[in-house]
Amino acid sequence: MKKYKRAIRTVLFALLLAFVFRSYLFASYIVDGESMEPTLYDGNLLMVNKAVYDWRDIGRQQVIVFHANEEEDYVKRVIGIGGDEIAVREDQLYINGKRVDESYLDPLRPNDGLPFTEDFTLEEVTGHQKVPEGHLFVMGDNRRDSLDSRYFGFVPADTVVGKVDVRYWPMNQLGVQF
């Protein structure tokens, strides 16, 4: 009888721990679409750290999940944060006038003579010179095929679910810290 009580306590504790982790610390997501290729692929399973931004600010180039609307969550890369000026010229990203390395895009860049990311300024696509405080400018890594801030505008920081920390499926694409 004692053996069963111990087993039941262990199972209940494990369930409680799983509930806390799932509800407050981490969430699982499935990538839907091609907008984050080559970093993430359609069908990849992700572990999203929901608590990280309670202790630190959202940073540029981090891959995040956010509530796009009441039904959908999107996964995108943070390009700009509050106060940033953003432009793309000759297929190169500039933030606050400085060129930003985006070598993570190289595996997907086609060699077809066309720009991977069309030229734009923040003002051209949003009507603002700078990213408003409390907001983010996000883009998918597959720049030719991504519905992102160039089309739907800024993302309120308070809609961010968390930071993508781990891709855990498929196992041959296991990855950490995007």
Give your account of this protein's structure.
The structure is a single chain. The chain is 21% helix and 31% strand. It is built from four helices and twelve strands; from the N terminus they run αββαββββββαβαβββ. The strands form two sheets. Strands 1, 2, 3, 4, 9, 10, 11 and 12 form an eight-stranded antiparallel β-sheet that branches. The radius of gyration is 19 Å and the shape is elongated. The mean pLDDT is 84.
Could you describe the largest sheet, including whether it forms a barrel? 8 strands, antiparallel
- Secondary-structure class: alpha+beta
Q: What is the H-and-E element order?
A: HEEHEEEEEEHEHEEE
Rg: 19 Å
Principal-axis shape equals elongated
Q: How many DSSP helices?
A: 4
What is the tally of beta strands? 12
Unreliable residue runs: none
